[in-house]
Design a protein that fits this description.
A: mainly alpha; two-stranded antiparallel ribbon; 4 strands; 75% helix; C: alpha/beta; seven-stranded mixed β-sheet; five-stranded parallel β-sheet; 12 helices
Chain lengths: 288, 287, 370
């Protein structure tokens, strides 16, 4: 059963990340390949507090991680608001690479390239959740809460404002709405989702290192949103579940092991191209 | 002297980077597309040349064929992917993601065919060393890179300013709408531009791995650094892109004298962020 | 909405079937697992590890398997990432019920170690050398010396040779940093001093700036811990024509580097593992590449597993991780490509000091680690 639990748990964590990426890329329209960096920051913060001399309980640590990632995401998206979208692409790449450099080199804070082993399991009000089944339940709760929050927000006036900005930013500004504040708020929200996902991830794996939060991870997140479907709740759920299952599905095909792995990455690339060319709205989304 | 050698090494890596920056700048300034797949063309050029050389082709022939193949490859990406997407009025985000996907496909085909091992060109003379003035030591590969890069820069400058095609490209770049209605045919210009840019980037694509070895996933870092150089130098300015590439390469090298090596990439992006906040148009912005 | 539900169900169903398919095959073959990096920058090493295992597999299956049972290995790509490794581990153990898994790369192995302990799955590492691996799990067995073992031998040798001032060039990842930390510690304990150190990124083959900076410190010797890009390093060193000697560990013994004329004069510790010429030739004929260190290591590790499996089957015990583990330690001494003894979770293996000279790797002396 553990495999199923692992798969579902990981998928749910990625659903939260999918919501985060969808908010930023799909709804606000900022091209971001640095979501994995924010995810990583969330993971490292929770790990740090859970393993500190006076270990903190899981939920407060998660709260701190969420706040930290909110601040980070706001800081990171601010440049995009000063410069046009294309310039932000480079900034986003740069932030991701810079984050990877910090994760790898700041050994005192992040354990450096060796990572942080032995992260304790999460606890709910000082009851530790030891078994994989309990962890899955926790992540399911997290994912459900996240989806609910997303759904409610998109229904609320704020959500409509965001959609309007996507359609015609100038008109919204002319109507007297504060476009900047709306975008920053969306980025903040995206940061919160990513931070929570990071905390869940750290406690689920009990070992984190910089390789889980690199550029490839950010690209995978982008692929999930593109394939699942941009800007919708359903897309944020389908994308992660499908893409995490893809490697397992591919093992059904009889590809020689020497090239199987490269074939998989190639498939991700092809999916991106094909979806963009023929179905930009993904499986369950709206046009990007 | 330590710093002199660092300076000259920086000049060499900067020149190679400069060619990448110029070629990327050509595409971006004209088509406004952030063509990340350019890194894939860069990588492809190197591997093709390697394959040809290991199968007996003379080095010069291998280089020329690699340039030709990259030209075709780039043109195809523009005409089959970008042009189609533009016809469907896709947003920049969509095209960018498609470009990213193309890069992933190219890199992984190379990895599947050639394995991910770091490959070495079987060209012994490339590693031969010449001591200049007794102080500075350069390999032939390094010297060739400097020479070819400078020639490429001169060539592109001449092309942009003194040929009709070059002027047509600059016209389209500065005002695509006007170009459309004055029958300058922007779409075919785009294909030509990407073709030329791909041909140019094949040069460092072959010469840099000649010195440092071939890796399937090694194209994105030079591309990003080159992009920073392009933006900091001013989009549309060929000299700006080339000059800033050398500046960045020198900064990365010389920074070693004062700080640990792991932060040198951080410096590059830090500089970029500063530019973005205070001078987004770059140093030598074309009007 | 219905369509979306249908898609999701279809996906989950395929995963279920995909996971179960191998089990539906004949019960006779024995399945093991291998979780190694097959894509990404680390695939350079992972591919060779896979070939080593496959080569041994093909040989033993050609002879009818172990006691009539064919052996199969399910290869999983961990992309050198811990989370993918954990997922693969759970998949192999839960869905395919493998009881032994080959692993490589320190990070992912450390991530899987607690799982191996909990589920009593034997893990065999034949490529990673982080010191933490020796004690990561009772079920993790290492068939090669840790970085610390090799550094100790090299430090002693250097001080004996009168080279007491060193600088360090290391790869900025788990393997490199581990090696650097060990050297900083053990070289000083042996009586030397460290003048400077410089990191380099994995896959970053332009070593010139780092080399220049280290050379400026005027050392007697430079200790190198990198796992890829050895050829370029050798060439750039030759270009610089330095006054100091360059030394390293087993990581240095890349066949391309040894063959390159620029590498003459490089000295390194070498976990002694050689393949008989016929074997090396057969490997090259099959894969087109030399049988490098990692391929030999995993071929050897596979041999150890076959021997252990043979005994388990001979004693009519079920093939479980626990039995494989206990039997391995009961046998204790193995003769694969070289004699190897397991007094602890890390094998005791002779370590040699080699020098590269004109395309060959020549052993100067040999030390057996305690």
């Amino acid at each position: 059963m553990d495999f199923w639990f692992s798969y579902i748990t990981l998928a749910e964590i990625y659903v939260l990340l999918g919501l985060s990426t969808n908010l930023l890329v799909g709804i606000v329209g900022i091209f971001s390949v640095s979501q994995a960096a924010v995810f990583g920051v969330g993971a490292y913060i929770v790990a740090y507090f859970l393993m500190a001399a006076e270990p903190m309980s899981f939920l407060p640590a998660l709260g701190i991680a969420a706040v930290g990632c909110i601040l980070l995401n706001v800081l990171v998206t601010l440049p995009s608001l000063r410069v046009s979208g294309d310039y932000f692409v480079v900034t986003s790449f740069g932030i991701q690479l810079l984050a990877t450099a910090v994760f790898t080199n700041w050994t005192a804070g992040t354990g450096g390239a060796n990572g942080l082993p032995g992260i304790p399991p999460p606890d709910l009000f000082h009851h530790p959740l030891e078994s994989t089944g309990q962890l899955t339940l926790l992540c399911t709760a997290g994912a459900v809460l996240g989806c609910l929050a997303f759904f409610l927000i998109m229904r609320a006036p704020f959500g409509r404002l965001l959609r309007a900005i996507r359609e015609d930013e100038l008109a919204v500004a002319a109507a007297g709405k504060n476009v900047l504040r709306a975008k920053v708020s969306a980025a903040a929200l995206a940061g919160a989702f990513a931070g929570v996902a990071g905390g869940l991830y750290a406690t689920f794996l009990s070992f984190i290192d910089p390789s889980s939060f690199d550029l490839d991870a950010s690209i995978l997140l982008l692929t999930m949103v593109v394939v699942g479907g941009a800007r919708t709740l359903a897309g944020s759920i389908i994308g992660p579940f499908l893409l995490l299952a893809l490697p397992q599905i591919l093992t059904l095909l009889d590809i020689p092991t020497t090239i199987a792995a490269a074939m998989r990455q190639l498939l991700y690339g092809m999916l991106l191209i094909l979806f963009m060319m023929f179905r930009p709205q993904g499986l369950a989304g709206e046009r990007l | 002297m330590l710093w002199l050698q660092l300076l000259v090494n920086g000049l060499e890596t900067g020149c190679a980077l400069g060619v990448v920056a110029i070629s990327f700048s050509l595409v971006y300034a004209t088509t406004k597309i952030f063509h990340v797949a350019h890194a894939g063309i860069y990588t492809m050029g190197g591997y093709l040349a390697w394959w040809l050389v290991t199968h007996g082709a003379p080095s010069a022939v291998a280089l020329l064929l690699a340039v030709a193949a990259c030209t075709v490859g780039g043109a195809m990406i523009q005409s089959q992917i970008y042009a189609r997407l533009e016809r469907r009025r896709a947003t920049h985000l969509v095209i960018l993601i498609a470009s990213l996907g193309t890069l992933a496909v190219m890199q992984n085909i190379i990895a599947a065919v050639f394995t991910p091992n770091i490959l070495q060109f079987p060209i012994p003379w490339a590693a031969n060393v010449m001591a200049l003035g007794g102080e500075v030591r350069l390999t032939w590969a390094q010297m060739l890179t400097i020479a070819v890069s400078l020639a490429a820069y001169a060539g592109v400058m001449w092309f942009a300013h003194y040929t009709i095609l070059g002027k047509r490209i600059r016209a389209v770049a500065s005002n695509p709408f006007l170009a459309q209605i004055t029958r300058l045919q922007p779409q075919s210009v785009y294909v030509i531009v990407v073709a030329i840019a791909s041909a140019i980037v094949a040069l460092p694509g072959v010469l840099v791995p000649l010195d440092l070895g071939l890796q399937p996933y090694g194209g994105i870092t030079p591309l990003l650094t080159a992009t920073i150089a392009m933006i900091a130098g001013g989009v549309g300015s060929i000299t700006g892109a080339f000059a800033l590439s050398i500046v960045i390469a020198e900064l990365q090298n010389l920074s070693l004298l004062v700080m640990p090596g792991e932060w040198s990439i951080g410096i590059t992006f830090f500089i970029f962020v500063i530019f973005m906040l205070f001078r987004p148009t770059g140093l030598f912005a074309a009007r | 909405m219905l369509r979306k539900v249908a898609i999701t169900l279809a996906v989950l169903a395929t995963v279920w079937i995909g996971g179960d398919a191998p089990r539906a095959m004949a019960a006779d073959p024995i399945q093991f697992g291998a979780i190694i990096p097959l894509t990404g920058a680390a695939a350079v090493v992972g591919t060779q590890e896979m070939r080593g295992i496959q080569f041994a597999l093909d040989a033993v299956n050609a002879k009818g398997g172990v006691r009539g049972h064919k052996i199969e290995v399910q290869f999983e790509d961990n992309q050198a990432k811990s989370d993918v490794a954990v997922l693969s581990f759970n998949k192999l153990v839960d869905l395919q019920h493998v009881q032994m898994i080959f692993t490589g790369y320190s990070g992912p192995t450390l991530a899987m170690a607690p799982l191996a302990t909990r589920k009593k799955i034997l893990m065999v590492n034949a490529g990673a050398q982080s010191d933490k691996l020796s004690t990561a799990s009772p079920y993790l067995v290492n068939t090669l010396p840790s970085t610390g073992d090799e550094v100790k031998v090299m430090s002693k040798y250097l001080v004996e040779q009168g080279k007491k001032k060193a600088v360090v060039l290391f790869e900025n990842d788990a393997a490199g940093i581990g090696g650097r930390d060990d050297f900083l510690d053990l070289f000083v304990k042996a009586g030397g001093t460290i003048l400077a150190q410089e990191p380099t990124q994995f896959g970053q083959t332009d070593y010139r700036p780092a080399l220049l900076k280290l050379a400026a410190a005027k050392p007697d010797v430079m200790y190198v811990v990198i796992t890829a890009g050895m050829v370029q390093l050798a060439q750039q060193l030759k270009q610089m024509n330095p006054d100091f000697t360059t030394v390293g560990s087993t990581f240095m013994s890349d066949p391309a580097a040894i063959a390159d004329p620029a590498s003459t004069g490089l000295i390194h510790t070498q976990a002694q593992i050689n393949a008989p010429p016929e074997l090396a030739a057969a490997f090259k004929a099959k894969y087109g590449d030399d049988m490098d260190f990692f391929a030999r290591q995993y071929y050897n590790a596979a041999q150890i597993i076959f021997t252990t499996l043979d005994k388990v089957l001979a004693e009519n015990k079920p093939v479980t991780g626990e039995n494989l583990h206990d039997t391995l330690f009961a046998i204790k001494t193995f003769q694969g490509l070289l004699p190897m003894t397991f007094n602890s979770n890390t094998a005791t293996v002779p370590i040699g000091i080699n020098m590269m000279k004109d395309g060959k790797d020549v052993t100067l002396t040999e030390v057996t680690a305690q």
